[in-house]
Amino acid sequence: MTTPDNLSRRLFLQRAAVGTLLATGGSTLLSACASGGSDDSGSGGGGAEQTAENPFGVKSADPLDVVIFKGGYGDDYAKAHEEMYKKKYPETTIKHAGITDITPQLQPRFNGGNPPDVIDNSGASALPASTLATSGQLADLTQLFDAASIDDAGKKVRDSIEPITLEAAQLSGKPLLLNYVLTVYAIWYNKPLFAKNGWEPAKTWQEFLDLCEEIKKTGIAPMAHQGKHPYYIGQVMMDMAVKHGGHDVIKAIDELEPNAWKHESVKAAAEAILEIKGKGYFMQGTEGLDHIQSQTAWNQGKAAFIPSGSWLENEQKPVAPKDFETTAAYTPLLDGSKLPVDCTEIAAGEPFIVPEKAKNKAGGLEYMRIMLSKEAAGKFTELTGSPTVVKGAGEGLKLSPGAASSGALLKSGGDNNWTTYFAAWYSTMDKPIRSVWGELAAARITADEFCTRAQKIADDTAKDPKTVKQTRT
Question: Is 382 found in the same domain as 298?
Fold first, then answer.
């Protein structure tokens, strides 16, 4: 079961890693490697003939050193990927470590100029990526994204992955991170419950209100949310706002533009949240519950909908009834929306890195290229229930209801799907914005007050001399 600390880690990784992780921050944690560490660095491996099948010139006998964060996804998927690498380079030996304390174990290795060849840099004790980036300790992944795809030699890797991956890779102006896991945000329901009652997820706002009224009459609350973590209900509001006003709405918010939070679409979405609250459609007491409490109540049939990311199904396995089918639904469209209903917010997370001073940097890059094949990505989804950034990797797999439905929503949204970066780029904004989302969901402030308070938080951030303003690509 996920603890609040793990929740913070997961939300940070899914949101912050995607937005140039720690782009404006520094750390003394890796001060030694920021100054270059030992001069006794690795050779980087390689040296074999570079071909479409071996674009980095990996030598088959060179050993490979892999370190994986053994968190919610475990590390069985990595062992499967290593077997694929071993099949291609049978003379190699692979050292595998599945750990949780990334920085304590790897800091000395970076400082000594002997880092692993590839690292899943996740978890509460992840290495400060910005420090590594600014000190030249991370390999540029341009060569990876420009290499031939394993699935199609006529196609580059960059063309076989979701576009968000390339945007999420940027750190210090270069692609240095491979964010491998794709999170799909949605409002979720139990399909058998809906089928039993003849309910269908609503497409328009009025249809949604009508459905909520019908659900309420059965004694079930139409919606629960994770009140102690207002980010969840805030995501619902933002999804409706972006669908209403288009991608420019979130672009302006991410870039700290004046009055971005006062956009008519943001206000309309805030009013929609208040309407849900005002009509009594939120589960009683949900404002005081944490994520596990509210999600468990939802699993128990006390609420019909709940907002979350595509990790929800896996997170709730310990308590969900055997016949419960966690299913993703789109948020409804407000009147006059510019985007279609079947798109949503997505985020790339779980950042992998290749150290610049790795002894087998070429092998680390090739390991990543294997990860980005449909076979490897499909194995990840099969073992974890979570989609990756590899296009089409889930096709033909026997997927759980949550993975299948979130994959369908991802596919239907296509280029209309959206993401956001402000919480990562400007970390001082994150908690204050969450706070005003919580105030809104509890109807302690009006929609106008929400927009005013959120905009003040953004304006104060923009005026702060320490703030380095970022722009969307």
Answer: no
* CA-wise closest residue to 160 among 171, 174, 142, 145: 145
pLDDT value, residue 46: 75
Residue 78 amino acid letter: A
259 and 284, same domain (yes or no): yes
pLDDT for 131 equals 84
Angle subtended by helix axes 76-88 and 374-384, to nearest 10: 160
Taking the whole predicted model, whether its pTM rises above 0.85 is answered as: no
pLDDT in tens, 33-42: 444 444 444 4
Separation CA 179–CA 308 (nearest Å) = 20
Q: How many whole angstroms separate alpha carbon 103 and alpha carbon 126?
A: 6
Tokens of 454: 């959120």
The residue type found at 316 is: Q
Range of the domain at 437: 185-345+422-463
pLDDT of residue 18: 38
Strands 303-309, 221-223: pairing is parallel
Answer for the pair 364, 117: CB distance below 8 angstroms, yes or no: yes
* Upper half-sphere CA count for residue 441 (Cβ side, 13 Å): 31
**pLDDT for 196-236, tens place per residue?**
999 999 999 999 999 999 999 999 999 999 999 999 999 99
Q: For strands 170-171 and 174-175, give the pairing.
A: antiparallel
Q: Is 405 a domain residue?
A: no
Identify the band that residue 43 occupies on the pLDDT scale cut at 50, 70 and 90. Answer: low
Please state the domain count of the chain: 2
455: domain CATH number is: 3.40.190.10
Report d(CA 149, CA 144) in Å as an integer.
Answer: 9
The rounded distance, in Å, linking the Cα atoms of 236 and 438 is: 12
d(CA 145, CA 223): 42
